[in-house]
Design a protein that fits this description.
By secondary structure, the protein is an alpha/beta fold. The protein has a single domain, classed as Aldolase class I (TIM Barrel). Helices cover 43% and strands 15% of the residues. The chain contains twelve helices and ten strands. Strands 1-2-3-6-7-8-9-10 form an eight-stranded parallel barrel, surrounded by six helices. A two-stranded antiparallel sheet has the order 4-5. Helix 9 packs antiparallel against helix 12. It is globular and about 45 Å long. The N and C termini lie far apart (44 Å).
Length: 262
């Protein structure tokens, strides 16, 4: 790995080898979803507590202060919407020149293994890796799953993560699941956990994050379980404690309760 790629990766993955990515890219297929109606207002108080922001170029330009030091992971795939025929029918939406122009530290792109667009989206990833390698830009592959909850199982996720790694992804984002160690152990590149649908309780969030870290994930890419919470900053700070300070779920929950009342 050359200097540029190592340098960019060190911005988003901290010196302890862990990371907390905050995704606010949901609008690219959901539109103005709950708590992201005004992205700038949602983002501002959370930026000090995340290690990188996962965002589209439009929201980056219009809602993020260019002087803010938080590293950017740029979402570069998309196309279909939640009201369209198939969310998996994604294409590359952002050029490598735009990635460089916006000074992104990394890019993120979805693959839909097992869908009708499996071949298309895996090739999107492979071509993106080719382009990004020329300029030392890390690529995060997102093992995307639509509404098919049965696909959020270790066998499917291990398959998807391994394919993403084989295509050259620097980091893979996937869902936590039972037997999560089977997913991590079969993927030769680092894994970050996705949040998925909003959890019922804050403790539930801290428990699955702690379990995933114990089983080998390097961090999380959590959005809705943070900014859809009535106390998003308290959740973010408690997650930082789990990820970077090895807090237990119970300790994180106690911290959350303390912070939410301030």
């Amino acid at each position: 790995m050359d200097f540029g790629k190592k340098n960019r990766l060190s911005r988003v993955i901290k010196s302890d080898g862990r990371c907390f990515f905050l995704p606010i890219d949901h609008g690219y297929f959901l539109g103005p979803t709950q708590s992201l109606e005004k992205p700038a207002e949602t983002i501002a108080p959370l930026l000090p507590y995340c290690d990188a922001l996962f965002v589209t170029r439009g929201v980056l330009r219009s809602c993020v202060d260019p002087a803010d030091p938080t590293p950017i992971i740029l979402r570069i795939s998309g196309g279909p919407s939640v009201v369209g025929k198939d969310l998996a029918d994604e294409s590359i939406t952002t050029s490598i020149e735009e990635v460089i122009r916006l000074n992104a530290s990394a890019v993120g792109i979805s693959i839909f293994v097992g869908s009708d667009y499996e071949h298309q989206t895996i090739l999107n990833l492979a071509k993106t890796v080719d382009q990004c390698e020329k300029y030392g830009i890390p690529v995060m592959a997102v093992t995307a799953v639509g509404k098919e909850t049965e696909k959020r199982k270790a066998r499917y996720l291990a398959l998807s993560c391994r394919i993403a790694a084989e295509m050259g992804a620097t980091v893979v984002k996937t869902y936590w699941c039972r037997d999560f160690d089977k997913v991590v152990d079969s993927c030769p590149v680092p894994i970050v956990m996705a949040g998925g649908p909003k959890c019922e309780t804050e403790l539930e969030v801290f428990e699955f994050v702690h379990d995933g870290l114990e089983k080998g994930a390097i961090g999380v890419n959590l959005g809705r379980n943070v900014w859809q919470n009535p106390h998003p900053v308290a959740v973010a700070r408690a997650l930082q404690a789990v990820i970077h300070n090895n807090a237990t779920p119970k300790e994180a929950y106690e911290l959350f309760k303390e912070l939410k009342n301030k």
